[in-house]
Each structure stands twice: as structure tokens, then as C-alpha cells.
Amino acid sequence: MDKSIFDIEEELNKLPKRPGVYIMHDSDDVIIYVGKAVNLRNRVRSYFRESTKKTVKIDQMVKHIAWFEYTVVDSELEALVLENNLIKENQPKYNTMLKDDKTYPYIKVTVADDFPRIVMCRRVTKDNAKYFGPFTSGEAVRETIDLLRRVYKVRSCRMSIQEKQVKTKSGVPGERKCLYYHMGQCLGPCDGLVKKDEYDGNIARVIDFLNGDHRQVIDDLKNKMQAASEQMEYERAGEYRDLIESVRKVSEKQKITDIGKDNRDVIAIARGDGSVIVQMFFIRDGRLIGREHYYMEHTDRESSEDILSAFLMQYYLGAPFIPGEILMPFEPSQAELISEWMSSQRGSKVSFTVPQKGRKEKLLMLAQENARIKLEKDVEKLKRNRERTVGAVEELGDILGISGIVRMEAYDISNISGFESVGSMVVYEEGSPRPNEYRKFRIKSVEGPNDYASMEEVLTRRFEHGLAERDLEDGTGKFSRFPDLILMDGGRGQVNICREVLERLGLSIPVCGMVKDDNHRTRGLYYDNRELPISHSSEAFLLITRIQDEAHRFAITFHRSLRRKSSTRSVLDDIPGIGPSRRKALMKAFESIEDIKNATEEELKQVDGLNASAAKSVYDHFHK
């Protein structure tokens, strides 16, 4: 499809009356919204009807739609899954988004192996292993695994071991034992030093421990400590004493909730001043093993039911574990559909429960209280962060008379006495830096310290590259996204250079200059052929200053790295046939460059690694 001649009205008439997912793109071909519909024709057309009542967010989104596409599916459930896959992959600006994307650690016992292992993982797969978790602390998981290996001497190696096919390095028993065996932390199954029944007994105790039976482990260790003490093996008794203390510390981290032995997630929501926090409690085998909170973005004027629905789909999409019951303060929108999807993911029924009394209600209220406290604690921080970022961009847009600014790019040139001029491009989106999209430029066509010519080269290369990437079949690349506003570190001159480049390439992008006073401090903005005043105490001014400093820092850092490389360059690098190895050999054989320069050709031939041709090349370099 040729997007440049996309006719929205014509394409709306072609929409089918079938379930599916629709994808909205802006003029830069960026996906800005993904939605699903039981009837694509009715749903998508409703966005463009003036009579349809829309939220502020959706109204703003519609103004930026340049074209759309859609995928027809067989059912609303398929549409739900595809929609959330696309949301997670593309992070559209106008979709309600789960800000955090965390993967939690699990403890895995490879019970399908002849001699199982205990490992940490972050994905649950159907491999007949036993999984315990999730846990919120990777450190706690590693500590637990280490403890169990020391107590029950379970192997940590990855080799495949079968009881009747034990192999050694030389075929002779006793040749394979590893360091862990000699440290007393492995029973040595790889060398046939433990029977499978004995090893399996230890694995059974490991599983009991992970299921919460810590008492049995402590009793076993106490018996061993007592036996060692009676045999006057006091050092070993001390080791058992330390292990008992470690077990107690690990077991104390799991708080008993006393609501049965089932697995549950508890979800609570707190809202205030445009901020939304979702609090989760993870209950496994009746124990509260951890809690976590998440921020939800783009929630303005969204109902709590819709926010909860978005959270469930985005959090559990691809989740390694889904419990059989979710406790929540109210049902999400499309509860039946989401429950059906989660049940299919789990392989058995997932129920949503809104508790009204009893221990479950108390647990939910505890989660609600935690969410409220977290929100109150962070609300000022969130508000301040918004003022510094999105609020500052909106303020800048008001000053310039530009709406819908999301992406800004700023450029700077750095050189010292004309040495290795370099350019930098820094990117800010919604007032926050995007370091992964920063770009560096080594000036190729300009000799000496000419900032205007250097800036022209940088801008030309950046946007020519972007246009070339847009012409590719997929229309994507590291330069393909263009900014909504370009910031130049200077006034009229820099702005005019940028405008000339954009006009030559047929681009229309607003360009704003940062005008300096005699002390090289920004005193105002140059935009649309006039200087605009800006308050030095405003968030917009502070944001511009941060962007300006960041562009300068990035350019200077790049410039310094090139200077360091140049300063470490040796005169030997200019000699044909002398690479890093031969250069190192020369510097080892002679105390200085001066000694190499004064050496005879015969002396040079004595250097390890230098043949007659290389020695002659070095000699000729200094004597011709």
C-alpha cells in the first residue's frame, strides 16, 4: 500500500464487518494506537465521526492518524490476544501501558533427570520439571539454591548423567570428581559415588523445603550437628550450626498468610492526580513470597475497570506462571473474555474473585493500603517528574505555538583547534532523554574549525540517511524517525543552516535556536524569524538547558575519546608492514622510539617477529 496516497474516507468504506485488530499510524509511520473490535467497520469508523463522544486522549490521537491497517481474526478472543501482543511489541503512545516489564526468578528442580539439579530460571516451560515461585528477589533465590546445594549436596554441573552410563575422563573411576565434590558440596554422581535412590531422597527433601517444610531440614541438621559434636568433630558441627542459622533466615523471608495452600495473586489499584499504581501480592502454597508495584501510563480518563483489564492482559501475556485465582477489588472490563484467555494460557481454570469478607478480603485490603501508601509517597515525585518532562514540553510548545511535540533532537559540534571535528545528536521524547537513539558523527568534508559547515554536514547526513531508510520496504531504521522539533545550539545562523538543509531535502520540521547572551548563557529562543523571551525559572527553560548540556556533553565525550586514541597512536603505526604484534615486539626490544630510529638494519632483524622485509621497512622509514 502506498501510504503517501492513503485516503482515510475511502479506506473506511472498505472495512469488513468482522472481528479483528486495527493499528493506527502517524505521519512518521510510528504506531500510535492498537485496538480490537468485534466489528472492525463500526469500531474504526467511530473514531472519525464528529458525533461520536471521545475522551481527550482519543481525540488527540485521531488528529495524528495518517493511515491505518487491520487484521481480521476468527473470534474476539483471538483479537484480544493479537491486540496485546502488538501493544507489548510496539508500545503505542496512546494505549494504556504497563510501565514496568519485569521478569521474576523461579527455582527449578529438574526432576525428569536421573540426577536432578536445582537452578534459577525466569521462564516456566513444559519440560516436566518442578517450578517454585515466582520470587521478587534474585538474590534470595540464589541464596536459597546455594543453601540447598550445601545441605543436600545436589550437583550444579550441566552434564547429562545416567546411573548406568556414568563416564569419566579416562574411563577410570575417581578421575572425574570436580571441585564441589572435594569441597563437600556434591555427592559426585558423575563418578558413580552415590546411588540414585540416595540422591533422589535428597531431592525429595529439597522439594519438601521449597514447599515450606523447613522444620524437617532443621531437625536433620540438628541431628548431624549433635553426631559430629559427640565424635568431637567440632569444626563440622560448627558448619552444621551455620547451616541451621541460614535455613532459619531463608524460612523467615516467607510470611504465612493462613488462607489455604493455593496459589493466588492479589491485585489492588490506587489512583490520584493522573497517576495509577497497581500493587501485587504473590501467594504461593499459602505463603506471601513477595510483593511488587507497577505504574500504569496513559490512563487519563480511563475507567479503573479498563485499567485493570489492560494490566491483566499485559502482565500475564507470556507470564511464566498464572495462578488459579486472582483476588481484585472489582471485576475488570471484559472479565469473562480475559478469564477465558488466562485459563487457556494456564491450561486450567483461572477465576477472578472480588472478596467481600473473611481473610481474603483482609488480604486485599492490605494490598489496597500498600497501594495507597505507595501512591501518596510517590505522588509528589511523579507530579514533579511530569512537570520537568511532559509539562516542560507542553510549556515549550505554548511558547512556540506548536502542539503535539513528542520527539525533539538537538545537535552540537565539538572541536579543539580544529582537531577531529565531531557532531552529536541527542534525542528527547516527552521531555526525557533516549540515550539509545543518540548518534555520533565524525566530520568528513570540512577542514578546520568551521562550525556552520560542520553542522550542515551533520544535518545533511542525518536526514538523507533517514529519507533513504524510509524508502526501504519496511520503512524503518535508526534514522527513519524524524523529530517534531529541532533544537539548535545557537541563534539565527544555526537555525538558517538547518532550514537550508531541510528545504533542500523537501522536509518541513520546526527549528528553534537557543540564543546566547555575552556570557554564553541562553537568554531566549529564536523561532520563526524572531526572538522569543523565556523565563529562566520556567520548566521549559530548564528542560532546554538540560538538552543543551546533554548535546554538548555527548559531543565532548566523543571528541575526547578520539583525542585519547590519537594520543596513544605511535609513529610505528605509519610504517608499512608493522602491525600491533610487531610494534609490541619493537617496543619490548628497544627502550624508546629514539633507540629504534638509531638501530641498524641488522639489529632490527634480531627482533622476534621481524623478518628481513619488515626490518628494512622500519629502517627505511627513519632514514629516507
Describe the protein's architecture and organization:
The protein is α+β, with helices and mostly antiparallel strands and 624 residues long. It has five domains: 3-95, 3-Layer(aba) Sandwich (GIY-YIG endonuclease); 106-255, no CATH class; 264-378, Ribonuclease H-like superfamily/Ribonuclease H (Nucleotidyltransferase, domain 5), CATH 3.30.420; 394-566, Nucleotidyltransferase, domain 5, CATH 3.30.420.340; 571-623, Orthogonal Bundle (DNA polymerase, domain 1), CATH 1.10.150.20. It is built from 20 helices and 21 strands. The strands form four sheets. Strands 14, 15, 16, 17, 18, 19, 20 and 21 form an eight-stranded mixed beta sheet that branches. A hairpin with a 2-residue loop joins strand 10 (275-284) and strand 11. Helix 7 (196-210) packs across helix 8 and helix 13 (390-400) packs across helix 16 (539-567). The longest helix has 31 residues, at 358-388. The model is unreliable at 167-174 and 253-260 (pLDDT under 50).
